[in-house]
Write a structure and sequence with these properties.
Layout: E1 3-6, H1 9-12, H2 16-29, H3 38-44, H4 50-60, H5 67-81, H6 93-102, E2 106-109, H7 115-124, E3 136-137, H8 151-160, E4 167-171, H9 174-182, E5 186-189, E6 205-206, H10 212-221
Parallel strand pairs: 1-2, 1-4, 2-3, 4-5, 5-6
GO molecular function: hydrolase activity
Pfam families: HAD_2
Protein name: Haloacid dehalogenase
Length: 222
C-alpha cells in the first residue's frame, strides 16, 4: 500500500446530520413546509447530489422550486455549522492519518465538495488534523464529473503518481464506493451515522472505526 484516499467529508468527520439539518433550515428560509425527517433522509442518501435530491423531491410532490437557490442556502447553513464544538474526527481517523505518514504513505482527500467546505472543515479540526497532513486534496472544481463517476479517483491517481492496485479508498456512501471501484481501487466502507444501513456489498469490507494496522493487513492479503 502506498496511499490512503479518504473519499468525502464524512469519512473524516461525520457531518451527515448537520447536512440534513441544513436542508431543513434552507426549506424554511425559502418558505417551504418541507421537513426531511431522518428515516426519509436515509433513503435519499442512497443517491449522490444535494441539488438533484431537492429537484427530485419537488417533482415527486408536484411542486416547482428553484433547486439551485435552495441548495445554495443549504450550503450556507451547513458551512455555518462547521465549528470546532460540533465537528470532531471520526474514530481512528487521526491515528490512521498519523500511522500512514509515519510509514511514508501518501494521504489524499478525494472529495468533490466545495473548497470552502474543505477549508471550514479543516479549521474546525485543526487541533488534530491539518491540511498539511494531506498530499492531495480535491474539490468540486477538480473534475467535471462528480461521483459515482470515476473521474475524481482517476485524477487523484494521476496527480499522486500512484497505481490503483497500490491504493485503498475509504468511503461512507454508495456513490463513493462505486466511484473508487470504477477506478480500480479497493474500497473500505466506513458508513456515517445516516448511511450505516446501506448495502455496501461492493466494498471490500465495512468498518465502524478505522484501524491503520488492519488496513495494512488487508492490503498485504490481496
Amino acid at each position: 500500500m502506498s496511499a490512503i484516499l479518504f473519499g468525502s467529508i464524512s469519512t473524516i468527520a461525520d457531518t451527515s446530520e448537520l447536512q440534513r439539518q441544513a436542508f431543513n433550515r434552507a426549506f424554511q428560509a425559502h418558505g417551504l413546509d418541507w421537513c426531511w425527517h431522518r428515516e426519509e433522509y436515509l433513503t435519499m442518501l442512497e443517491k449522490s447530489g444535494g441539488r438533484d435530491r431537492i429537484a427530485e423531491y419537488a417533482d415527486a410532490i408536484g411542486q416547482t422550486v428553484d433547486a439551485a437557490a435552495i441548495h445554495r442556502s443549504k450550503s450556507e447553513f451547513f458551512q455555518n455549522s462547521l465549528t470546532a464544538d460540533r465537528v470532531h474526527p471520526r474514530a481512528g481517523v487521526f491515528e490512521t492519518i498519523q500511522g500512514a505518514k509515519s510509514q511514508g504513505l501518501k494521504v489524499a482527500f478525494v472529495t468533490t465538495t466545495t473548497q470552502e467546505n474543505i477549508l471550514l472543515l479543516m479549521a474546525a479540526l485543526r487541533s488534530s488534523i491539518q491540511i498539511t497532513d494531506f498530499d492531495l486534496i480535491l474539490n468540486a472544481d477538480s473534475v467535471d464529473r462528480p461521483k459515482p463517476d470515476k473521474a475524481a479517483y482517476t485524477f487523484a491517481l494521476e496527480k499522486l503518481g500512484e497505481k490503483s492496485a497500490d491504493c485503498i479508498a475509504i468511503e461512507d456512501n454508495l456513490g463513493g464506493v462505486e466511484s473508487a471501484i470504477a477506478a480500480g481501487i479497493d474500497c473500505i466502507a466506513f458508513p456515517n451515522e445516516n448511511t450505516a444501513h446501506h448495502d455496501f456489498k461492493r466494498a471490500s469490507y465495512m468498518v465502524d472505526r478505522l484501524d491503520f494496522d488492519e488496513l495494512q493487513k488487508f492490503i498485504m492479503s490481496n
